[in-house]
C-alpha cells in the first residue's frame, strides 16, 4: 500500500527544514569561532600594551612574526602604539587611548558573540522541536 502523499510531502518538508537548521547552526558556530578569535586578538594586544607600558627607548625584546619565529626589536617610541581602525587605516595613539579603543572593540565583539550564541540556542531549540516532530512520523504505522 502506498504512503499518504500528504504525509510524504510533510516528511520532505521536515527534512528540508532540519537540513536548513543544521546548516544555520554550522554557520553560527563558525561565526562564533571567528568572533572569539577576534576577542583573543584584542586580548593579546591589551597584554602587549601592558608589558610595554613604562619601557624606556631602546628596550630590547623579541617580537613574534608567526610560525614560532621571532625578530629582535627595540622600543623606538615609548608609550605609543599604531592601532588599526579597519579598511587599512592605522593611527598612532598613546597607550591609554589604544587601550580604550581595544576595550571598546572587545565590548562590541562580546555583544556579537552573545547575539550569535543566542541565535544558535534558538536554532538548536527549533532543531529539537523538529526532531520530536520527525519522531512522530517514525512511530506512525
Mean pLDDT: 92
Strand tally is 4
What is the CATH-assigned architecture?
Answer: Orthogonal Bundle
What is the beta-strand fraction?
15-25%
CATH C-level class is Mainly Alpha
**Overall spatial form:** rod-shaped
Low-confidence stretches: none
Helices and strands: which structural class?
alpha+beta
Strand order of the largest sheet: 1-2
Radius of gyration from CA coordinates? 25 Å
> Which sheet architecture does the biggest sheet show?
2 strands, antiparallel
How many domains, in number, for the residues?
A: 1
Distance between the termini: 12 Å
The name CATH uses for the topology is Helix Hairpins
Structure summary:
The chain is α+β, with helices and mostly antiparallel strands and 141 residues long. It has 2 helices and 4 strands.
Please tell me about this protein's structure.
The protein is α+β, with helices and mostly antiparallel strands and 141 residues long. The protein has a single domain, classed as Helix Hairpins. Helix 1 packs antiparallel against helix 2. The longest helix is centred in the first third of the chain and has 48 residues. The radius of gyration is 25 Å and the shape is rod-shaped.
Amino acid at each position: 500500500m502506498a504512503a499518504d502523499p500528504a504525509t510524504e510531502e510533510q516528511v520532505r518538508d521536515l527534512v528540508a527544514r532540519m537540513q536548513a537548521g543544521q546548516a544555520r547552526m554550522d554557520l553560527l558556530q563558525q561565526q562564533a569561532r571567528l568572533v572569539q578569535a577576534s576577542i583573543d586578538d584584542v586580548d593579546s594586544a591589551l597584554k602587549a600594551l601592558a608589558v610595554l607600558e613604562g619601557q624606556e627607548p631602546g628596550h630590547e625584546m623579541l617580537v613574534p612574526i608567526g610560525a614560532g619565529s621571532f625578530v629582535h626589536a627595540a622600543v623606538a617610541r615609548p608609550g605609543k602604539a599604531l592601532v588599526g581602525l579597519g579598511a587599512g587605516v592605522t593611527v598612532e595613539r598613546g597607550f591609554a587611548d589604544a587601550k580604550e579603543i581595544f576595550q571598546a572593540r572587545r565590548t562590541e565583539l562580546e555583544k556579537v558573540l552573545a547575539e550569535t550564541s543566542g541565535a544558535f540556542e534558538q536554532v538548536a531549540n527549533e532543531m529539537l522541536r523538529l526532531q520530536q516532530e520527525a519522531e512522530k512520523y517514525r512511530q506512525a504505522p
